[in-house]
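Quick one, T. Sequence first:
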Amino acid sequence: MTARRWLVLLAALAGAVLTARLGVWQLDRAQQKLQLQAAMDAETARAPLGNAALGGAGLHRRVVLRGTWVAERTVWLDNRPMDGRAGFYVVTPLRLAGRADAVLVQRGWAPRSQADLRQLPPLATPAGEVEVTGRLAASPSRLYELGEGAGGAIRQNLDSAAFAVESGLALLPLTVVQTAPDGADDGLLRHWPAPDLGLHKHYGYAFQWFALCALIVGLYVWFQLLRPRLRRQHA
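Structure tokens:
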């Protein structure tokens, strides 16, 4: 075998091994996401927590909390679609009963006026102590934003730590996604999207890497083995 053919063989082997390894890595990532999904499902299936046990709870745990809304600190997160319609995610702090701290509650979705994009829809926020059912989550989802976010009622994003300083509230480092029935006392929709762990993305990448591996092997076999043999047979 000539030096050129050795070089082609080594390059083909290196390419096939690398792409196959990358495909296996993507399958490993998918398996990790499956385990994460199982952990999330197990956390969701546990009994809901109340105010007293909220501190050490993990994400996705169901909660039933009591407190009073801090209505004047309501934030409307813009450019949040739901059911194919443009609108806001409504976030209001809940001052927890029997505690000195509060938690941000992603209460639901409200439509945006097409005639006046800065006009806020009506929102019923009950006074006095209320009960909120939901699940624990991290900060509200972030959208791409140029520069530092502006304050005010309508915002693009909301950082819990920065908002705690701004509002003077002792906010817990998590939020609650309210899961009460649609329109319960406030007219908001709660068709929250399920957490996307990207399983299909990893399977798609794995398929692409394995397909590239098969292509490298196939091209080597054709150009270095089969094609020269066919030429000799027809010579």
